[in-house]
Specification:
290 residues; 7 helices
């Protein structure tokens, strides 16, 4: 298969993904069809799927080194936010999800900071990964996100960090754990808790109030790939402790190639909003709060 996204052999798919174990560069192979079928079953049953040891150790090492170099440029937020990253609505009841704020302490190495020879940048720009994710989701076509800050960042959590319940501004996210924390940092989610047609505020409120009946927990390991419907499944990461930060790569996909984050969402998560966020604010993929 032609590798048009990067001529550097060290950044070819076979140097990033374990294609011997997971030959996603050829979706017609029986083992790849079986993998896609398994992922689709997991997504249908639990709202996400995991492919263990998807990324090769040498690529993880390069991602970790890149994140370490860029760590001083991380945008750290210690602001309070609701699950929608929007302003509170004083006309709503005090216990409404839009008026339920929790303090976040976590950071992002924004997508526009990634280095030219970044493994994360290379794999995100490879059409083969997009096709594989699309097949697993059973949604086609999907596109790389046009948001220049949030399309493929690194998420970083240090000692004491906590990322409370929230929804993503894009439909689908894949995560690749680069480095796990010494303790904590467990991904929790409420799958398909809302849909484009229904915010389901009552169920969202139950989770915010501590309800666990629809909450799943996923303890990822370095190199694991997770595919997740982040716009429709509320999720959080439990507090991190210890001297080793949790680092996770977050390539993102959408059904509308024109849409980006709302300006307020971008400012809260990535530290700033760019002209594109204001220009496209009215171009939303759905009518959800965010």
């Amino acid at each position: 298969m032609a590798e048009t996204f990067n001529q550097d052999a060290e950044r070819a798919p076979s140097h990033i993904i374990d294609l011997d174990r997971y030959p996603i560069d050829d979706l017609s192979r029986p083992e790849t069809r079986d993998l896609v079928a398994n992922c689709r079953r997991e997504l249908d049953a639990a709202g996400c799927c995991v492919v263990h040891n998807f990324v090769l150790p040498q690529s993880l090492a390069r991602m970790k080194a890149e994140a370490d170099r860029l760590l001083p440029r991380t945008f750290w937020s210690t602001e309070d936010h609701n699950p929608y990253f929007c302003a509170g609505a004083p006309e709503l009841p005090a216990d409404h999800p839009q008026r339920t704020f929790q303090k976040r302490d976590s950071g992002f190495i924004n997508s526009d900071l990634l280095e030219a020879d970044s493994d994360l940048r290379a794999i995100y720009n490879w059409d083969g990964l997009t096709r594989f994710v699309s097949d697993c989701l059973g949604v086609s076509p999907i596109y790389c996100w046009a948001d220049p800050l949030g399309c493929n960042p690194y998420g970083v959590m240090r000692n004491g960090s906590f990322f409370p319940w929230h929804f993503d501004g894009n439909e689908f996210t894949i995560s690749i754990l680069v480095q796990e924390a010494e303790m904590g940092g467990v991904f929790e989610y409420a799958p398909d808790i809302r849909s484009p047609e229904n915010e389901n505020f009552d169920c969202v409120k139950r989770v915010l109030d501590g309800g666990r009946d629809c909450v799943h927990a996923l303890d990822l390991r370095p190199g694991d790939l997770q595919i997740f419907k982040g716009r429709f499944s509320m999720h959080r990461v439990t507090p991190v402790t210890g001297g080793k930060p949790r680092i996770i790569a977050l390539p993102t996909y959408v059904v509308d190639p024109f849409a980006v984050n709302r300006p307020e969402h971008s400012k809260q998560v990535y530290g700033r909003a760019l002209p594109i966020h204001y220009e496209r604010e009215s171009c939303r993929p759905d009518a959800l709060t965010d």
